[in-house]
Write a structure and sequence with these properties.
CATH superfamily of the largest domain: P-loop containing nucleotide triphosphate hydrolases
CATH class of the largest domain: Alpha Beta
Structural class: alpha/beta
Order of helices and strands: HHEHEHEHEHEHHEHEHEHEHEHEHEHEHH
Bound molecules: adenosine monophosphate
Number of domains: 2
Shape: globular
CATH architecture of the largest domain: 3-Layer(aba) Sandwich
CATH topology of the largest domain: Rossmann fold
Radius of gyration: 22 Å
């Protein structure tokens, strides 16, 4: 199938071509016609599938067909993070370059006045994080009464980050009559509830990952005692001569602490997470890209939307609670044929999480013990097959799609009769 068959305008096709997209991805093939036809959409898709263009292209087409003459936004895209908002804004800019629609990206952590100026000059498509959007709404510097299309991008992340109340407050400011598009990488009970309340007879779309990192990235699992992880990490970085390493921790506090310890080990390291100011995040990321920061320690949420991939080394200092996050994390390395390796330091407490990841990947990941870092007797990895059920600590990963799908479950799939 080509982009020409999807009902897009010549201006959009030119933009798509200029970006070098030759073929629509599966989610684009399914979502673009559905959105153009005016349907609500519930899409199970994660970063790397081309999901952004899947909602941006048809939304641009619909808005450009019916110029309103009003200055208030007609499409609203809500995202969990500033980085993702900025990335969506870039896609809108690139894909809409031959149209005269205006867009603005607004998020917290930066001055509000330039945003107010931009909104005042008139905006067709507004991309925002929920908190700052509500600030504008409270100050009456944004008028949401003209919104025709609402997109919730990475809705699962927004719920994880506690934005449900903010989202509800935003919804209350929108006209009742509108099109709703909900994108989520995973399908929890909370997402189901949100979708039930928000969407009218939605078209349900599920796609496989375009990024097959889980199959192609070289993955190493090192069993190690929890107390020796930092030492092992320093050893791997030093002995391997790794110059650019992205390390994932589970908590913000853990990220800070690890970055400080690595610094003391003589490795320039910076932490990046939601509690850091925008300035600090940008500085850390720039340093990492330029090479002055050798190790970037990040939480999953902070790493979302970061414009860094094709990294030579990604390390799971701690395994994520949600198995799908493992796939997101390792997808940062070895993309597009580049060499890369994903390393996971797994303590005995994390064996249940590892089992969940192996179930998702539908294969066992070989464990390698490094001499000098053998786990203590009691912590040794079990040789028995992975348990069928994941530990209760991973509440979110239960009751979702079939193992291996990482996408909306059968309950969602069958709802549109
Ligand atoms: P996303 O899933 O929206 O984060 O997109 C992932 C990446 O795929 C982005 O870098 C897009 O520019 C790129 N992309 C989106 N659609 C296509 C396409 N049809 N062909 C090639 N690359 C694409």
């Amino acid at each position: 199938m080509s982009f020409h068959e999807l009902g897009l305008s010549a201006e959009l096709l030119r933009a798509v071509e200029a970006l070098g997209y030759t073929q629509p991805t599966p989610i684009q093939q399914q979502a673009i016609p559905a959105v153009l036809a005016g349907h609500d959409v519930l899409a199970g898709a994660q970063t790397g599938t081309g999901k952004t263009a899947a909602f941006v292209l048809p939304t641009l087409k619909r808005l450009s067909e019916r110029p309103s003459g009003k200055r208030a936004p007609r499409a609203l895209v809500l995202t969990p993070t500033r980085e993702l908002a900025a990335q969506v804004g870039e896609d809108v800019q690139n894909l809409g370059r031959h149209l005269s629609l205006k867009h603005a990206v607004i998020f917290g952590g930066v001055g509000i006045n330039p945003q107010i100026d931009k909104l005042r000059r008139g905006v067709d498509i507004l991309i925002a994080t929920p908190g700052r959007l509500l600030d504008h709404a409270g100050q009456k510097t944004v008028d949401l009464s003209q919104v025709e299309v609402l997109v919730l991008d990475e809705a699962d992340r927004m719920l994880d980050m506690g934005f449900i109340h903010d989202i509800k407050r935003v919804l209350a400011l929108l006209p009742k009559q509108r099109q709703n598009l909900l994108f989520s990488a995973t399908y929890s009970d909370d997402i189901r509830k949100l979708a039930d309340n928000l969407l009218r007879d939605p078209v349900l779309i599920e796609v496989a990952r375009r990024n097959t990192a889980a199959e192609t990235v070289e993955q190493h699992i090192y069993p190690v005692d929890k107390s020796r992880k930092r030492e092992l990490l320093s050893h791997l970085i030093h002995s391997g001569g790794w110059e650019q390493v992205l390390v994932f921790t589970r908590t913000k506090h853990g990220a800070n602490r690890l970055a400080e310890q690595l610094d003391r080990d003589g490795l320039t390291a910076a932490a990046i997470h939601g509690n850091k100011s925008q300035g600090a995040r940008t500085k850390a990321l720039d340093g990492f890209k330029k090479g002055s920061v050798r190790v970037l320690v990040a939480t999953d949420i902070a790493a979302r939307g970061l414009d860094i991939d094709r990294l030579p080394h990604v390390v799971n200092y701690e395994l994520p609670n949600v198995a799908e996050d493992y796939v997101h994390r390792i997808g940062r390395t070895g993309r597009a044929g580049a060499q890369g390796a994903a390393v996971s330091l797994v303590s005995a407490e994390e064996n249940g999480l590892l089992a969940g990841i192996q179930r998702l990947l539908k294969r066992e990941l070989p464990r390698e013990t490094l001499p000098g870092f053998e786990p203590s007797e009691t912590a040794a990895a079990p040789t028995t097959p992975a348990p069928r059920r994941q530990k209760p600590s991973s509440r979110r990963s239960r009751g979702r799609g079939a193992p291996g799908s990482g996408r909306p479950g059968a309950g969602a799939r069958n709802r549109r009769a």
